[in-house]
Amino acid sequence: MMPHKRYxxxxxxxxxxxxxxxxxxxxxxLPAGVEAQLFSGLRESWKQHTQADPLTLSGTFGCGLxxxxxxxxVLAYVTPFSATGYLDLTFNIYGFAFPFHIDLVNVSQTxxxxxxxxxxxxxxxTIGRFxxxxxxxxMHFSNYNYSGMTFTGGxxxxxxxxxxxxxxxxxxxRATKFGPDDRxxxxxxxxxxxxxxxxxxxxxxxxxxxxxxxxxxxxxxxxIDFSLLRAADDSTSLPTVWYGDNGDTTLRxxxxxxxxxxAAGISGRLAFGKHVAISANxxxxxxxxxxxxxxxxxxxxxxxxxxxxxxxxxxVKPYTNLLKKVAWLYVPRxxxxxxFAGDAALSWQWSRVSGALTYxxxxxxxxxxxxxxxxxxxxxxxxxxxxxxxxxxxAFINITGFAQRDNLDHKQTYTNQVxxxxxxxxQSFGEVFRLSASYNGIKQDQFDGLEQVNDTTRTDQVVSxxxxxxxxxxxxxxxxxHSINLNFNRTANRNLNPLSDNSINLATTTLGAGYDISxxxxxxxxxxxxxxxxxxxxxNSYTAxxxxxxxxxxxxxxxxMRLRATASGVFSYSRDAENAGAASVSDAYGAEGGAVPIGxxxxxxxxxxxxxxxxxxxxxxxxxRHILQLNAALSNYSENIIIGQRIGVDVDLRATxxxxxxxxxxxxxxxxxxTDTSESTxxxxxx
Length: 687
Description:
By secondary structure, the protein is mostly beta strands.
């Protein structure tokens, strides 16, 4: 059995102190006159609300069915049956909108079984300049502390002309455990009411609580925003079956550690007139990877009783006393780290030229529990500029370059550097011809870190891509439209290290041509495309031919009703050849002979692949209320290995049916002086 960790008592975020913190932040930074601004919008719109209908109801009901079949192992490749159902409702009370989203059914089973119902409710009503978040919702504070992660709880936003504020409290994740979900149907349904419904999982986690606050000043050109996120795991949220009724947490703590985080962000923009601006985003994160670790204050207190460390402890004692005073907000531990990240940009904009210079850095192990993962332990600098050559936006030139280098903490084995650069040109010649050309390059280098790079294996390579795309558009008296598209693409990967082999050298060329015609009066559209691709390396070669056809026809096209049919098909043939010694490749494929020499003592071992897919669909729309879609698809993939005579066929069938109904009804009409209309039900307000 693994060593027992010291048990950490339950840690929940303080509700009362949270409200006090938010109120204190607003009172200390609120400028004079903002109070009037907060409610001026409500006073101005009050008359409009009193004249609106007391109660209207609008929304959308949707449902869908899908079925799939594959000639191989069905359970491993496709979902035989799935069903979805949802309901969007918006109650409008005197002009105040209260939207709700309800997931009625969400079934995706690899076997036919009784589905668990799901019910996820979220509403974001807007009242004046205030927007409220109830249920499952999300906000954006900063890229470095809280950015778009869904929370289940409550929040509010205020967006004024010169002042804005936001805050939320809720759960980011709910507790999960190993194995299948063994909750009863009633418990499953009850959890879904709170937006806590999860599928079976092999990922274990604690329930994670979080709150955040954001305040900002300024307009769209010049502003500054401050934001804060506080998140922590509830160390008692995992089921007791994990560690027994005796409270022994050894098994739980040996698998998972509770985490907590305090992340702050500051964002701003300063405009110099109408043409030049400076913007910046900074983030600081205090992250604890294991909440059961010892507190720093306790560690300092324990060292104070030793003569050898008494002097150092006396010097840091004022800081530890400060940490104890703010322990209600965050408790640093021996597993805590402080990391920083940020970016800055200088941008300019004139009539024909615009661009920006940017710098970004992210320290190693920078972690925020409210933001998604992003590239760490690196810094980069770059810029881009766009030039409009002529009037009427006929021609543009864009140039971009960025350099990134990692190993900021000098603890990596090696240091990597990446240069990306690109240039593009596009021009329109009247309304008929348009030409686009571009070049993209990536240069990768490797340098010493903790260890010295071996010169024979050092990364030093460049990837270059050239693209050319002409396009011709023709119209004939608005009766028909014709489009011709051509494209050329050349990509080359070269190894610049003379001491290593050239096995990564690769060149790929693609050519394509397409023609589309639209007969507007008859509602017919037809398109055909051909693409050719060829890749060459030292030991391999690859060629592919692809032909695709698509068409559409408006069976019914009236003012309030439309029925449209669509169909498409794709056929592809490819050949992958390997040039190697006969013995090694024969062993790989289990062949005893039959190799065909291609010269130079080499043999050609190839794999030919054929694929075909077809799709057909119907799209029905009546008065923008009833929308019905039916789609069916067939895919056939065949693989033929010449040496060994192995043939594999993969057939896939899929069908989907979706329906949605949109409605809007006045439940209670507005009473005017001329008419005294009482309640009315089910009166449509959508034409």
